[in-house]
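Support request, please re-run this one:
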Amino acid sequence: MQSAKAERGERGQGRTPLWMLFPGAFALVALTHYTLLRLPYYWDEAGYYIPAAWDFFRTGSLVPTSSTPNSHPPLPSILLAGWWHVVGFSPAATRLLMCMVAAAALLGVYRLARVMLPANPARNAVALATAALTGLYPIWFAQSTLAHADLFAAAATLWALSFYFERGVENGELGSGRPWQRIWVFVLFSVAAMAKETSVVTPFTLAPLEFYWLVRKKGAVTRRIRFGWMEALVVPALPLLGWYAYLKHRTGNFFGDPAYVQYNATTTMDPTRLLMAIANRAMHLTTHMELFVPVACMLGAMLLPALLERDGTERERIALPLQAVLGIVLLANLLEFSFLGGALLTRYLLPMYPLILLECVATWRRRVRAWWLIVALTAAAFIAGIFINPPYGFSPEDNLEYSNFIRLQQHAVAEVVAMHPRAVMTAWPASDELRKPELGYVARTVPVVTVENFSDAAVQQFLASQQSFDAVLIFSTKYEPQSLWTRLGLTGLGRANEGMNARYFGFHHDLTPEQAAAELGATMVWREERGGMWAAVLRVNPTQDAMNSFATKTR
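Re-run finished. Output below.
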């Protein structure tokens, strides 16, 4: 095996600087997402990230006032607000910035693949294939224009890992590396932590490995180098601790809203819920959204012998110590996001998908002569997954189903505005879409009364509150396929599992527009379906509206 010094020298020869590739990568991401650039904001964008950045943009406050403050660090708000000051505030400006972040992240994937792969004539091709498949993976593709903290954190994490693994392997463990590599690792993991707090799991997972290698070493110089790597991996938590101290000073709580902490950390510790979460996270990292195609092909390829290079030597694998470290990082992230996070959103694992794809592509190249055909098959599966929904319940933001939701909301809001209602009964996020013009749905605020969701129990509870309204905007709050898989209970949201999903993950069935009209004494005036989602607008019948008004006045 080549020495680390020789390896670094070979890598540096004939390589185009990555900053020169950025304009092309950005143009490619922006063009493939062109039809999405003018969409108004979606779900968690509208619920926290855009309001938080909007507050900082207008007032300079790092702690949001138009949304409930929580533990999320302020770096995304700072970057978004700074960009808006340059190009103006609009959804299109926001989505172009996210395309830039996505392009930078894909270059990080390419760099990470190059530094981890053994030196061979196909290294650039394997790295390029890994980056291309990452960009096409439905979850990554969908997140590439959404203003969530996860993409910022993923970009910084992947670049940090590329500098961490650039040290190479020496004597069966990661090498000593250079001081500048440690500096970059510290800076980039700090950026990741200030983009999203849960990003610290990756450096905190690597730090104990450095400690293990430290205690095995002899010699003051070698130990000092290992200690330097530990510092680079642990110190990124300090800016995050500073943020929490500031949050405590401003709100009285280290993590902002106590209800947020309870939902995302306290109530997640139930053993049954934890086992369900681990099973779901394992599915997210192996099969979800067509990921089963590359994983199955990798497992099949592993049954084949390694091929030979032209010089007669066996094609090399990614060094086993590097693969072991990757496996530990993947496991740590799987466990963290099983323990934390009330909703099992796949974007929390965004930086992990390129690591899995790198293992897949490297294995194909080592063991399958026409490995590029498997790359093409995987790309075709991913492209299909961008547009075609799986036969089980999933989050619309895992592919372009989220755009169907946004367009339905746009059309429904337009119908409501045309009615000039006194008050609209609806649920979040439509309640914010009607109240906050900055989200891109209305030109001026529309009065709303809010129901928790559109389940029968929530609607009955709302009616008992006797609030007055004369219009209803009802919509599907989740994707519920009517497939054989679901009816048989063979998926996480199958009927056999509905009780546990309702208890641990907030699952419920929405009333249909017809059922809601009957319960509310209303007439359906508009309805539309797109993909697996729907929305409808109801006009409350005059007699029912009068009853609502009378009940409100006599309370």
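The chain is about 60% helix and 5% strand. Strands lie at 169-170, 173-174, 424-426, 448-450, 471-475, 522-530, 533-540.
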